[in-house]
Amino acid sequence: IKARSLKSPCKSTCRLKCYQRFTKDQREGIFSDFWREDRDWDSKRQFVVSCISSKPVARSRKKDGSKGNRAQSNKFSFQINSCEEIVCKTFFLNTLAISEMFMRISQQKTSKTGMVE
C-alpha cells in the first residue's frame, strides 16, 4: 500500500488562484498536521468539517417546480497565519489527499452541534 502524499494544487485556470496564495511549505504543513499519527478518523473528519461552511443554494433555475440536484453550497477554507483563506474544492481535496466521498461522509456524520458523531 502506497503512503498518502500531497497531490498537485489546482490548475492555473482556477478562479480563486489558490495555487498562488499558498506556498508548498504551507500546503505540506496542513497535510502533515492532518495525517499525524495521533489523529484518529473522527478527529480527521472533525478537521474536514471545520474547514467547510455550508449554506442553502442561493438560486435554483428549475422551472417545473421540482427540487434541484443540490440542497447546499460548500465553501472551503484553511487557516493560515490566523487568517481564513478560501480555496477551491480541488485545492482542498488535493492538499488533504482525501476523496470527495470522505468529505461527504464527514458532513453526513456531523450533528447539529457541529461535532462528528
UniProtKB/TrEMBL annotation:
It comes from the Eukaryota. PANTHER family: DNA-DIRECTED RNA POLYMERASES I, II, AND III SUBUNIT RPABC2, PTHR10773:SF19. This is Uncharacterized protein. It comes from Homalodisca liturata. The lineage of its organism: Eukaryota, Metazoa, Ecdysozoa, Arthropoda, Hexapoda.
